[in-house]
Structures are given as C-alpha cells and as structure tokens.
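Problem statement: downstream parser choked on a complex file, so we are re-checking the raw output for the 6-O-phosphono-beta-D-fructofuranose run. The parser issue turned out to be on our end (a line-ending mismatch), but while we're here, posting the original submission so the record is complete.
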Amino acid sequence: MRKRVLLATGGGDCPGLNAVIRAIVLRAARERDWEIVGSINAFDGVLNEPNEIVVLTEKEVAGVHIRGGTIIGTTNKGGPFAWPIKNPDGTWGEADRSDEMLRRLQYLGVDAVINIGGDGSQRISQKLFEKGLNIIGVPKTIDNDLLATDFTFGFQTAVQEATTAVDKLITTAASHNRVLVLEVMGRYAGWIALHSAVAGGADVCLIPEIPYDINLVMDKIYSRFHRGRGYAIIVIAEGAKPMGGEMVFEKSTEVGYENLRLGGVASKLIHELKTAGLETDMRETVLGHLQRGGTPIAYDRVLATQFGAKAFEMVLQREYGKMVAYRHPNIVSVSFTEAISQPNFVDPTSDLVATARGIGICMGD
Ligand code: F6P
C-alpha cells in the first residue's frame, strides 16, 4: 500500500508556498510508493465535515512555482487546538479538536504531515508532535522573523516589492518637493523596512527595534530640503514606535484571529511631524498585502524548492519533530523547540544597520 504525506499551509500566505508544494510532490514522485495529499485551508480540510483533502500529483503542481499564494489555501484563524465554536448565547469560544484530528488523520491513512507555516503554525506542529504525530515543519513568512533559519522564502520578494515602491516614490517626491512615507509590513521585526530602505535609498528608516525620536527625524528632513526645495523618503515598519511610545495596533474582531492587527503608523508619523512644526507637504503610502501577493522572485523560488525537497527527505529519514532551516550554505533540520524558541529581530548593532547609518540613513535615534 502507498504511504501518504499530508501537506498543510497555515498562517498568512507568502510568495513561494506553491514552489514548496511542487518540490515536495516532485521529490516524492522519485520514490515508488508515496502519495501526497493537501488539506484545504491549513488543518481545516482535515477537520471540516465533509473533509477537504486533495490528491497532489505532478499534474496538479505543474507550473505552480511561479504563482503566488497557495493552491491548497490557508487561514490564520483557529486551528486544531483553538477551533472557534459558537456558544448558545451567540458569543464565540474555542474547542481543542487535536485528538479528533489525529483520529481523522489515521482514518485518512496519513503516515506523515508536513506543516508549512510561520511561528504560530510551528507551535501547532510542536504540540501535535508531542501528541505522537509524525510531523515536519517548513518555515514561511515574509517577515523573516524566525531565528532558526537565515532566511525564510517570501522575504526577498516582499523586499523587492517594497524597494520598487521606494523607487517610484522618489520620482514623485522629487517632482513635488514632498516628504513621502512608505509603511511596510514585518510585524514586530524591521527586516523588510531596513532592506528596502537600503536598497531604495531612503532618507529615514524607522523599525520596531530602534524606537525613534521625532526631533531627529525632523533634523534629517530639514537637511534634505534647501530653501523649501528637495524631498525625503521615509520607510517605516508597521511595528515602529516612538521612544517611550507604543506601536499602532488594534485587536481584531474577526472570529478566531488572535494576532494584533498592526497598521496606521505612517499616518501617525505624519501627524507627529506636523505637530512638531514640519510644514512640508507629506503623504503616506501603505503597501499592505501587495508585499505578500504575486510571483515569487527567483531567490525565493530556489529557497522554497530546497525547503520542499528537504522536507520530503526528512520524511524518508523519519526525522520527525523537526523543521527545515537554511544555515548558509546548507539546508538543515532543527527541532521544533529550537525553531520556536526565539524570534529574529534586527540587531541595532548589526553590520546592516551600520551600513544604513554609514550612508546617512537616519534610523531615528
Ligand atoms: O506575518 C505576515 C504579515 O503579512 C505581517 O507582516 C502582517 O502584520 C500580517 O501578516 C497581516 O496579516 P493579515 O493576513 O491578517 O492581514
């Protein structure tokens, strides 16, 4: 009888997910007796009634590596340990359906699971592994905030999008003598902001790891304008905050969504600059999900393909309870415990921050 590997993609989507799926299917096709199936919308496909499981062959994955998103869907709500349920009074609660999920996987004849997702998904992987599931993790996030791996796929594509936005903003800012503020994603990490600010040649880069002093941002802007002429580009990470201040976020009201929703920091910064006396024209651009959608760049396709092929090899070696990781120049495996132990934040004393400062980018401090 053929052995079955079930794939799930969980959390926010990310360019390169389809390249991982394709690589797993193509690598498995080199072995005789393996079948790959996908669970639709993370583990919801296993838990829904009727279940939503699709068989993935070379035919289904042909050409998908160039497509953004995920062909098996994803969700960043709920999950087997916190399944949203409606109480009789209309409020929402949570149920732990993990035992039921393990029974369902057994019934489906699943021998191993590959869970492709960020830190939240890998926490679920760890808990499922502790319950006895044969599970392997593949890290993904545009935020690049997992310490266990040098890079996650999707990050470079997001940086490319943000850099293209900086390039475009420069021409319009210069024409109108304006200060243009670009808000980029990254959650609590400033990687996308820092890389795109250096690549695009921004004047100011504000990241969560370095709280900013509005007066120093003002000084930098003044230095860029001479007799009212000039322009300035500010790249700000969605999680950036002023010294002694807070991030801009709201608690989502979406059922099962547990993350804070960051956003709005660019408009807050403009307000702070106006209050501090800056009279120049200012506008904000919030790049949002354009950073997550669309075609992965070549770098991310290569990394995603390496991750997928390695994940299937780990299944063959029965290296369960581990996540694939990139440690230049190798693709290695690390335990889930190590994978989720620490986030990867920008080190304010790192070489890249020094480079940014060295070419005159104001980091807000
Ligand atoms: O973690 C990836 C990410 O895109 C963050 O950069 C961002 O804060 C968040 O997800 C947005 O999530 P959602 O899909 O809920 O809009």
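For whoever reads this later: The chain is about 35% helix and 20% strand.
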